[in-house]
Amino acid sequence: QLNDSDDAAVFPVPDGEQLVQTVDYMPALVGDPYLFGQLVAIHSLSDLWAMGARPYGVLVLAEIPFGKEAVIEENLFQMLSGVITVLARHGAYLLGGHTAEGANLALGLTCNGFASNEVVLRKSGMQAGEALILTKPIGTGTLFAAEMRLKTKSVWIDAALDHMLVDNAAAAEILSRHGATACTDVTGFGLLGHLLEMAPKNLGIQFDVAAVPTLAGAKETAGQGILSSIHTDNHAASEGIENPEAFVDDPKYPLLFDPQTCGGLLATVSSEQVDDVLKALHEAGYKEAAVIGRVTERVGEKRAIQLS
After folding, report:
1. Which of 43, 205, 265, 276 has its CA 20 to 30 A from that of 291?
2. What does the alpha-carbon distance between residue 171 and residue 103 come to, in Å, rounded to a whole number?
3. Residues 92-99: what's their mean pLDDT?
4. 230 phi-psi bin (left φ>0, alpha ψ -120 to 50, beta other)
5. Could you tell me which of 82, 27, 31, 34 has the C-alpha nearest to residue 58?
């Protein structure tokens, strides 16, 4: 019941489907609370899309900076309006939530969705010979770290936001329709961190560094050593690379560990489906979607990822 003032949201799970639930939280990346609300909704719902689920509703936990009552109410209104704008595109609901005053603007979402018992996508499932596809460019971590230091260009941030505001719903449908065997969204652990979560012990990845799409300006800011605060933790994923020393000077190398906000989907599809998948993704607005590697058999004690 969505129109009553009960203490909790109650909704049925349709026959033949499973409830898929996830939660995420982030402090404000941008000063505009309406834009921030959209970004958090897209970022949080991405976990549902990555598993082939359609969003149903969200619960919010909103932190609003101390201030005059009218300002607090307006910030909350704008932020939730941003969330609802995204939800409305996908027929989902704002079910309720909780607000608190604090030092900073921040927002957390608990997202609920449904997936058919037959089409749930998971991180595991890739098979030798398949292609690895990334649907969106990387680089948000370094760009917004640079923006906080006033060491980036507005055109770079504007271009990044344009990519971030493209959600993963259509990409997930395309990948599912073309038989994707494994899928995840690229977020806080960075591209290689999430890739390592997908790779079984008996399989490896021939990873094409040059093919990885990157946001405008990201190589420049990363090259200046301007990195996200969690970049160092993400760099632990280099332990899964067979030949990191050959690429440490490549300008894209640090971006492989860059944490993403509103990142794309990372998925494996059969070689026979690659061209059709890329064509569909490009037509759906994921203009920089690309094949960034191939799944191989792992030989002996080799590490999971071989850079090329």
Report:
1. 43
2. 36
3. 94
4. alpha
5. 82
- Here the tokens at position 30 are 């941008």
- Calculate mean pLDDT across residues 17-30: 95
* Model confidence, pTM: 0.95
Q: What is the DSSP string of 215-230?
A: -TTHHHHHHTT---TT
Residue 124 banded pLDDT, cuts 50, 70, 90: confident
Q: What CA–CA distance (Å, rounded) separates 106 from 103?
A: 9
The amino acid present at 215, given as its one-letter code, is: L
Question: Which residue shows structure tokens 């976990």?
Answer: 47
Residues counted in the chain: 308
Query: CA 195 to CA 187: how far, in whole Å?
Result: 11
Give the tens place of pLDDT for each residue, 227-283. Answer: 999 999 999 999 999 999 999 999 999 999 999 999 999 999 999 999 999 999 999
Which secondary-structure segment (H or E) carries 87?
Answer: helix 69-89
Q: Determine the pLDDT at residue 300.
A: 78
The H or E element containing residue 116 is: strand 106-116
